[in-house]
Amino acid sequence: WGIAGDDIEELGVKLGEGSFGVVSKVVDRVTNRLLAIKHLPLKPDPEFRTGIARELRFMFRCQSPFIVKFLGAYFVDGMVTFCMEYMTAGSLRDVYLAGGAMDQKAIKLVAKSVLEALHYLQSRDIMHRDIKPDNILCGFNGEVKVSDLGISVHLSDETGAAAAVGTLNYVAPESIGAGDGAADHPHAADIWALGITLVELAVGRYPYPLEDVDEVETRNGPRTRGIPPPSLDAFGHLDYLESGTPRLPAARFSPACRAFVSLMLERDPQRRPTPGDLLRHEFLYDLDLPSLHRHMAKVVQRACPAKFDELLADKAEHPRRYAP
Ligand code: ADP
């Protein structure tokens, strides 16, 4: 779809490793532009292939400025390779681990971007199912986009199960048996995951086990480096959920911002707002997207200066790769 394996020139640059496979930076020989590709193992049965083909056609049509662009895919030797837009700064996990706790403006941009993506997907009756800092990518220009949609749904059973294990940290209470309503409000789980993600970015740490974040920040200031998340089993996750709900620190986040995030972490999925409701919340009133992008650009450049220098050097050497 859209791209042939022969068109891809490998650069030998690994961008990251997900639960399924490696993501690398490559050049599309036809356009001479940079792309990111992801190799995944394929289940051999034809029905599965038809399923994946359907999914790919759908992803091709998913066009939103808040979703990482899917550019095509090809099958070789029992593997499928997805080609997508290259996001220069990597994931928000990379950014906060290096740069620490994010401020309110950065949180506002992430919330706005992910909610726009979820709103778009919901209008097409799709859940993302895997919202987390690893799946929100950003560029050194400050753009923030959601990635990895739908991929996990049509993967082989083994990889699908592995993915579920990898993302338990963001699973909503109703989806893990700590409440009702999962079936009636499937989209609400994405909102819970976004709420946890926003607190994680804001404090520089996966918010469980709960901490008195105001006290921690009064003592030490906001974290200047992020702390990698723990990996949880279902029991550990349930214990955490039962211990309470994470909150944003009061000193750095306005009442409107804190109220906005608390709505996402409403335990009853029926009462959790939809992306459309949240996009109309007062925290996002009068939002100036270009100015938030400029702010985010500074945040990511400060967090990952070596990667940014590398980008500038590569841009100077290969300007056509970065042409708009
Ligand atoms: P997961 O399987 O955990 O959802 P992925 O396999 O999609 O994660 O990606 C793993 C990592 O590779 C990401 O966290 C990110 O750092 C990097 N990455 C993925 N896609 C891109 C992209 N389009 N541009 C730049 N970096 C990417």
UniProtKB/TrEMBL annotation:
<feature type="binding site">
    <location>
        <position position="43"/>
    </location>
    <ligand>
        <name>ATP</name>
    </ligand>
</feature>
<protein>
    <recommendedName>
        <fullName>mitogen-activated protein kinase kinase</fullName>
    </recommendedName>
</protein>
<feature type="domain" description="Protein kinase">
    <location>
        <begin position="9"/>
        <end position="284"/>
    </location>
</feature>
<comment type="similarity">
    <text>Belongs to the protein kinase superfamily. STE Ser/Thr protein kinase family. MAP kinase kinase subfamily.</text>
</comment>
